[in-house]
């Protein structure tokens, strides 16, 4: 029952969020998943949670890559290129963590996710 309520809430939340708010929400979730793993590094289920968090982050950033390479994307070219460069860095770091898991390697990804989410929540002028 609780899972159904959570699914309904998440669906309602998605329906009521603007594009920027939804992107910010997803990036925040991605950052929180990594942060939880980082804070509970010695947990017995760390490998499973780390794998889940990395997969989620990869999906998020793959989506952004697809959107940013779309010729119809309204963002200025230089901003698209900057975000694509960040996404390439994140991809590399996620693979580094998969190859050699270290708690500290997560910090930069967490910070980037949270900072971009914060920027998306700021109202454009």
Could you please describe the fold and organization of this structure?
Helix 2 (19-39) packs antiparallel against helix 5 (106-121) and helix 3 (46-69) packs antiparallel against helix 4. The chain has helices at 2-16, 19-39, 46-69, 77-99, 106-121. Helix content is 79%, strand content 0%. It has 125 residues and is mainly alpha-helical. It has one domain: Up-down Bundle (Four Helix Bundle (Hemerythrin (Met), subunit A)), CATH 1.20.120.
User: What is the quaternary state of this protein?
Assistant: single chain
Rounded to an integer, what's the Rg over CA atoms?
A: 16 Å
Name of the level-1 CATH class = Mainly Alpha
Q: Write down the secondary-structure element order.
A: HHHHH
| Residue runs with pLDDT of under 50 for 5 or more positions | none
Strand content: under 5%
Number of strands: 0
Q: How many DSSP helices?
A: 5
Indicate the percent of residues in helices: over 70%
CATH topology: Four Helix Bundle (Hemerythrin (Met), subunit A)
Main sheet specs: none
- What is the annotated CATH architecture? Up-down Bundle
Q: What structural class is derived from the secondary structure elements?
A: mainly alpha
């Amino acid at each position: 029952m609780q899972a159904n309520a959570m699914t309904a809430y998440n669906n309602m939340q998605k329906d009521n969020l603007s594009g920027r708010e939804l992107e910010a929400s997803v990036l925040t979730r991605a950052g929180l998943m990594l942060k939880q793993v980082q804070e509970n590094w010695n947990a017995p289920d760390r490998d499973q949670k780390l794998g889940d968090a990395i997969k989620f982050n990869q999906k998020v950033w793959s989506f952004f890559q697809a959107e940013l390479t779309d010729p119809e994307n309204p963002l200025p070219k230089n901003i698209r290129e900057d975000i694509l460069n960040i996404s390439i860095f994140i991809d590399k770091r996620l693979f580094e963590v998969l190859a050699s898991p270290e708690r500290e390697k997560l910090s930069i990804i967490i910070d980037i996710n949270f900072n971009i989410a914060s920027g998306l929540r700021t109202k454009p002028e």
